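User: Okay, second chain of the day. Same drill as before: sequence in, structure tokens out.
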Amino acid sequence: MKLPLTLAALLLVAGINAAAQPAADGPMAEGEVRKVDLDTGRITLRHGEIANLQMPPMTMVFRARDAALLQGLKPGDRVRFVAEKVEGGYAVTTLTLLPTIPGP
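Assistant: Same drill. Structure tokens below.
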């Protein structure tokens, strides 16, 4: 009898944690930070394909939907992000810093 209750409790906790996580607005892309401009809320990314925008890999400037997304980023950082077309331009709406892989 304890097993079903334990399983139910685990599923409930997993559901609560999933609900607490912000949902990405679209498919995630990966890129490398080339430049961060906190004053204008813009970030330059060298990125792979962005499927939801039918955009091939390139380097380009994006606005940040929220300038707080750019805090602590520096050139060379690897990120996973969501970009969307917003008001005639492209904006990063979600951004996650990827772990750094130590060199030799």
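The radius of gyration is 18 Å.

User: Thanks, on to the next one.
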